[in-house]
Design brief:
The chain has helices spanning about 80-85, 85-105, 110-125, 130-150, 180-185, 205-225; strands at about 5-15, 20-30, 30-40, 55-60, 70-80, 165-170, 175-180, 190. The protein has 6 helices and 8 strands, in the order βββββααααββαβα. The strands form 2 sheets. The protein has a 5-stranded antiparallel sheet. Strands 7-6-8 form a 3-stranded antiparallel sheet. The chain has 2 domains: about 5-80, Nucleic acid-binding proteins (OB fold (Dihydrolipoamide Acetyltransferase, E2P), Beta Barrel), CATH 2.40.50.140; about 80-155 and about 190-230, no CATH class. α2 packs antiparallel against α3, α2 (about 85-105) packs parallel to α4 and α3 runs antiparallel to α4. The protein is elongated, with a radius of gyration of 20 Å. The protein is an alpha+beta fold. Helix content is about 35%, strand content about 25%. β1 (about 5-15) and β2 (about 20-30) form a beta hairpin.
Length: about 240
């Protein structure tokens, strides 16, 4: 039986195949990550459609579930071009596309991650936001993806004493929060925990966002990337 999926999605990556064709990864609204073969994707006629970061209306067809399948599409919005007006915003967008292509399971419905991704894109399309807001949204998004994939770190209580106050550090070994009293003697071996990772309502500084990126890198390495023998740099 032929399986046909018609949905919208954002192209995450494109790998050349033959002279003009390509294999593309698309994060879709209805079917999660889809991989498919596109004939003549890199031809002069179609190259504008099949670009990393484009929002497309697509049809994915395959006869067997283990097959790669073929994709045909029409372009809806050239997101990468609209975001590229700002170097930082484009870097964030590009990094997220690459990450999702690496870590998302194929054909697994991920509505919360897709919604968070499109919300982040809407934010990056807003030319009125500042750099701190964009970088914080990036860290928030990384945490949402981690949680939705089943690897939610516990930053709400000390992993040693169990207390829920004065949480200042994160242990690189356990990826648990550490309170000031327990961690002050070992602070040079611990990561600094920004309060907004434990409580989304808290404000943050540039240093907080940088520390948040380091903690996200630790989490992804420990829970997702290294177990799968993969590497990826999250820090901007």
């Amino acid at each position: 039986m032929t399986e046909i999926i018609q949905t919208q999605g954002i192209i995450l990556s494109l790998k050349p195949h033959g002279e003009t064709s390509a294999i593309i990864d698309i994060f879709t609204q209805q079917a999660g990550l889809i991989k498919g073969y596109v004939k003549s994707a890199r031809s002069k006629k179609n190259s504008g459609i099949y670009q990393k970061g484009n929002l497309i209306d697509l049809t994915h067809t395959r006869r067997l579930t283990e097959q790669l399948g073929t994709i045909t599409a029409d372009i809806m919005q050239c997101l990468w071009q609209e975001i590229s007006h700002n170097r930082l915003y484009f870097k964030i967008f590009n990094r997220i596309c690459d990450l999702q292509s690496v870590i998302l399971p194929v054909h697994v419905y991920e509505p919360f991650i897709y919604k968070a991704f499109t919300d982040l894109i809407d934010l990056l399309l807003n030319s009125n936001i500042d750099a701190l807001t964009a970088k914080r949204a990036y860290v928030d998004y990384l945490l949402i993806v981690l949680q939705q994939l089943g690897f939610a770190p516990n930053f709400t209580q000390c992993g040693v004493s169990g207390v829920k106050t004065d949480l200042m550090y994160v242990s690189p070994r356990t990826v648990r929060a550490i309170c000031q009293q327990v961690g002050h003697e070992y602070h040079d071996k611990l990561l600094i925990l920004p309060s907004f990772l434990a409580n989304h309502t808290h404000d943050c500084s540039d240093n907080d966002v940088e520390n948040g990126q380091k903690i996200m890198q630790l989490c992804y390495n420990k829970f997702i990337l290294h177990p799968a023998d993969k590497e990826f740099t999250l820090i901007l």
